[in-house]
Amino acid sequence: MSLGQLIILSGPSGVGKDTVLDRWRARNPLVKRVVAYTTRAPRPGELNGEDYHFRSRSEFLALAEQGAFLEWKEVHGNLYATPLADMEQMLADGLWAILKIDVQGAQEAMQLRPDALSIFLLPPSREELERRLRGRGTEDEAKVQQRLENALRELDAAGDYAHQVVNLDVETCVDDLERIVREHLCPPSS
């Protein structure tokens, strides 16, 4: 089996990363999300080990000290990390290992893993991004405002990624992601 492909997928909160990734995984069995670790509390319906590995701050920091993470950062007041062993196993299995990761973590991951293909999801507009964030109904107004402020800063980093994809609708977005990865793996001959 050939080696897999590491893919960094970022975008501001509310851009639809989870929805797009869920649809992409349903369409392509090679696409697997590397389940990140976090200290934030689970949202309704989220499952430990499937959506995130939810850990206490002390458990998280102990894992970080043991070198269990490719990278880790504090975002929106919570800690997030990419588990190194899980990611390496997916790549060894020939899978497309997706790091759904914030801009801070992505920048570090891109430095540590220059072989990664980086893709930034953009909203169709800032107004649509705010509508999506508010429509989730998972945060109070203060958290929504914090996420909107962070989103504006994150959008400035889109140019640091090899590719940018606008998430106007999920199916088209997944088509674009699939095309980008396939062209990266098998570039058209000139």
Feature tags:
single chain; 190 residues; alpha/beta; Rossmann fold; five-stranded parallel beta sheet; four-stranded mixed beta sheet; 7 helices; 9 strands; 43% helix; globular
Polypeptide structure, described:
The protein is α/β, with parallel strands linked by helices. It has one domain: Rossmann fold (3-Layer(aba) Sandwich), CATH 3.40.50.300. Helices cover 43% and strands 22% of the residues. It contains seven helices and nine strands, in the order βαβββαββαβαβααβα. The protein has helices at 17-27, 57-65, 84-92, 103-112, 126-136, 141-155, 170-185; strands at 5-10, 31-33, 37-38, 53-54, 69-75, 78-83, 96-100, 117-122, 163-166. The strands form two sheets. The protein has a five-stranded parallel beta sheet with strand order 2-7-1-8-9, sandwiched between helices. A hairpin with a 2-residue loop joins strand 5 (69-75) and strand 6 (78-83). Helix 1 crosses helix 7 (170-185) and helix 5 (126-136) runs antiparallel to helix 6. The two termini are 27 Å apart. The relative contact order is 0.22. The mean pLDDT is 92.
Structure described in brief:
α5 packs antiparallel against α6 (141-155). The protein is built from 7 helices and 9 strands; from the N terminus they run βαβββαββαβαβααβα. By secondary structure, the chain is of the alpha/beta class.
Please report the total strand number as a whole number.
9
Q: Main sheet: which strands, in order across?
A: 2-7-1-8-9
Distance between the termini: 27 Å
Shape-level CATH architecture: 3-Layer(aba) Sandwich
Structural category: alpha/beta
Sequence of secondary-structure elements: EHEEEHEEHEHEHHEH
How many helices? The count is 7
Any low-confidence stretches, pLDDT <50, length ≥5?
Answer: none
| Silhouette | globular
Largest sheet: 5 strands, parallel
Instruction: Count up the domains.
Output: 1
Q: What's the Cα radius of gyration?
A: 16 Å
Helix content range: 40-55%
Q: For the record, what is the CATH homologous superfamily label?
A: P-loop containing nucleotide triphosphate hydrolases
Tell me the strand percentage band.
Answer: 15-25%
What's the CATH first level? Alpha Beta
Q: Could you name the CATH topology? A: Rossmann fold
Mean pLDDT over all positions: 92
